[in-house]
Amino acid sequence: MANGGGTLLGAQTKEESVWSRAISRRSLLKGLGAGAALAVGGGVLSACSSGLKGTASASTRDLVIGYVSPKTGSLASFATSDNYILSTIRSTSAYRKGITKGGKTYHIRIIDVDSQSSPNRASEVTRQLILQDKVDIVVAGSGPETTNPVAVVCEAQGVPCVSTVVPWESWYYGLGAKPPSTSEVFEYCTMFFFGLPQFAGCFIPIWNRIPTDKVVAEMFPNDADGNAFRQFFPPAMIKAGYTPVDGGAYPDGTTDYSSMISLFKSKNCEVYTNVPLPPDFNTFWKQAYQEGYKPRIATVAKVLLFPSDVVALGSLVNNIATDAWWTPNMPYASSLDGESAASLAEGYQTSTGHQWTQALGSTYSLFEVAYNAFTAASDPHDPKEVAHALHTMSYSGMCGSLDFSNGPAPGVAIMNPVGVQWKPGRPGKFTDFPYAMYVVDNTLNPSVPLTGTLEPTNP
Description:
Blueprint: H1 8-24, H2 26-40, H3 43-47, E1 63-69, H4 82-91, H5 93-97, E2 99-101, E3 104-106, E4 108-114, H6 119-131, E5 137-141, H7 144-157, E6 161-164, H8 168-172, E7 189-193, H9 196-208, E8 215-219, H10 224-239, E9 243-246, H11 258-266, E10 271-274, H12 278-290, E11 297-300, H13 307-311, E12 321-324, H14 341-352, H15 359-376, H16 383-392, E13 394-397, E14 400-403, E15 412-414, E16 418-424, E17 435-441
Parallel strand pairs: 1-4, 1-5, 5-6, 6-7, 7-15, 8-9, 8-10, 10-11, 11-12
Antiparallel strand pairs: 2-3, 12-16, 13-14, 16-17
Helix pairs in contact: 1-2, 1-7, 2-6, 2-7, 2-10, 4-15, 6-7, 9-10, 15-16
């Protein structure tokens, strides 16, 4: 795709070109593309007039990492561990000592910014990181509302980028690749997480262990994640012998789900799955309970991933299952200083007084990947070299083994999640809380020990 450099007018045109490809995939990006595309013509980019390039930091010895995450807004729960992780990363010996190349020592700085859970804002702050802060790489996490507009700007500006916590289909096709092709190469952008096959490999084994009529209620919104799930998940359900019932492509922020609940009840949907914004699920689940819809097993994506999401539901969260890409029980360790997953989670709890969150692992790994890319490049200020290092990287760290050269699409590294359920807490280092996350299925990742017993969400 487009290379970096050129005038700001040229860069703006390239961003518009990338976005025009992305939003043309309306089946996948109707909600996200339109909003983020509006930001391309305004904000920081249109306010500048000089021909700055994203690689301007090459004139200094510092290597600068820009980090974009939703610290506020509807997805803020994804970023609750940010401050602790940033402090931890900065204190590692690797980041304190910097990188030595050709007799030069490059110090590493991290600039973190808030996307406010808004695609428009994500685009704006990414351009600011590139054009004003002169970052050498941008790392981003926590859903396509942040990762996709960040990647679009980076690809157009020619700045290396790595994203996480977004289904790879939502990211890859959201950037403009045409499904079902997996041959499109985004020169500067990469990501690690998992996709619909892994969601299916995590959720369907759970469904199979709970006796039901095998009719599945789908709550998929009209946004990047919802449309990706709607296109790619039902075939896996059908192949496994389940009948999907689509509740409809509702807009994010919907407050009345009565018609959807009536549909699920009329079809006797004893299995329930979703991929909504956290506040939308809380509203739905409370209404479903009030209206008597109580599926035997509920497996949710994008919601109930973190302890802060559980508070709003209280006892209604009991035995709801979700995916976990990282837990303290995983046998992984940092590639920066050898710290174990258990130690990272324990340190967070001791330091903050809060319950561990799986974003600890994925956010930590963003900075492992950035560091490894810098060290692999002969010139860590050269965006093409760093981008090439990202695309060819294979290493083991806080999230296990990540291979960006051998994924389902170029620049995509796959993680294998485990199935977990929220249950009342019990005495223990990582479970002594009102509700805790227990590993109940490790089909995709048998190296992770089970810590709980799978039970129906509703008897």
